[in-house]
Amino acid sequence: MRKIDPAEYQKRLDRMTELFTGMVKQADRLSQTRCPYRDRHDECTAAFRCRNQGVVAEGRQRQGCGHEGKLDYRSAWQSDAEARQRTKDRVERVKSQAAARRRGNGAKADPA
Amino acid sequence: MRTTTRTAIRTATRTPVDPMAELSDIKNEIVRREIEEFVTRPEEIARNVALFTRAHERMQAIAAGIIEGDDELVDKLTRDALDADHEALEVMDDGLIAGMGVVGIKFRENFIFVPEVLACARAMKAGMNHIEPILSASGLDPIAKVIMGTVKGDLHDIGKNLCIMMLRGAGFEVVDLGVDTSPDAFIDAIEEHRAPIVGMSALLTTTMPNMGKTIEAFVDAGLRDQVLVMVGGAPVTQEFADDMGADGYGKDALACVALAKKLITEKRRNAPP
Fold first, then answer.
1. How far apart, in Å, are the Cα atoms of A105 and each of A46, A96, A97, B265?
2. Do B115 and A9 touch (CB under 8 A)?
3. pLDDT class for B19, splitting at 50, 70, 90?
């Protein structure tokens, strides 16, 4: 087995990075209107629930995606517009509880 | 951009390109059909026809396996090709990367979408698994090992998978912990793989605090100083990353690779001699 020249290998890494960069940019562009979990058969590949999931067509295994492709699909993943501030508060709580626990005063952990 | 691509292809070519090559000269039916059906730009047709007509039939079959996203097939064909004394760089150029080039065109033209691209990337990884021992024997180690996972309670994985695809393409070794990853699973992986970088993703504001919990678990386990933590995902911002005590935030897969390179460079620069 012949050894690989580092400079030659680097050229391949550069080529792969170039290819994948184009793909990631295309994925980003597409994500404005099309859910990334929606495959070429317009079926949902996600492992989680989404309001856009529809029925399983005859002869298929996955649920269809019912999104119309005009609005941001991500709104179907989130249930609450104020979730952001609550999340920020929870992050702070997680940190303070961990700090308190380490100090040994046994603050109760956030159950969420 | 196109000139760069052509230069890269020409650089990777070891046998002369036949200027008279035609689509019908490509022996592999799948590759031939894919180019005929999905590649429409004249310069890309010419480039792919030139590439695949000079490629060995084994390489064409590997490329076809990549295009179809068949990881088991690519695994077998790559092993067979290396056993038959094909060079690792030939397998990469004419099989794995050539196949992925067609995938990129199909994706750009909306013939396939992210789930199919990720299946093709998995197939490419299956082939690269056989190249890695040769790289290692050549003294070509990965840039660094990165552990990646979506945090506990979160089942979204596409952003993480795009990051993994980019990281591997850039030369990182990635241990993928999948979705719904508990802090303990991250800790076990750090200890098992001795990885210097951990990447966490969350797609929901409700699961994002679990990144903070996981970082706190690293502190409790005495591992925080050993690993660099990068975080990302749609609701995550630099502000949240700072709040949670992460070492860095990447807004997308491109930023993830740049961040991983920056973090590991700084860590090595600051390491005691």
1. 42, 12, 10, 39
2. no
3. low
- Which CATH number among 2.60.40.730, 3.40.50.1820, 3.40.50.280, 3.90.1010.10 corresponds to the domain B145-269? 3.40.50.280
pLDDT, tens digit, for every residue of A36-58? 999 999 999 998 888 888 878 78
Q: Say how many CB pairs under 8 Å bridge A and B.
A: 163
CB contact under 8 Å between B114 and A1, yes or no, is no
Q: Which string of DSSP letters, residue by residue, matches B19-47?
A: TT--GGG---HHHHHHHHHH--SHHHHHH
Q: Give the best residue of B7, B13, B113, B174 to mutate against chain A (max A CB count within 10 A).
A: B113
Say yes or no: A100 contacts chain B, CB-CB below 8 A. Answer: no
| A16/B169 touch (CB, cutoff 8 Å), yes or no | yes
Name the CATH architecture for the domain at B6-138.
Orthogonal Bundle (1.10)
Could you tell me where in chain B the CATH 1.10.1240.10 domains are found? 6-138
Could you report the per-residue pLDDT of A4-43, keeping only the tens digit for each? 999 999 999 999 999 999 999 999 999 888 899 999 999 9
Cite the beta strand spans of chain B per DSSP E.
Answer: 145-150, 173-176, 197-201, 228-232, 248-249
B162 contacts A1? CB cut-off 8 A: no
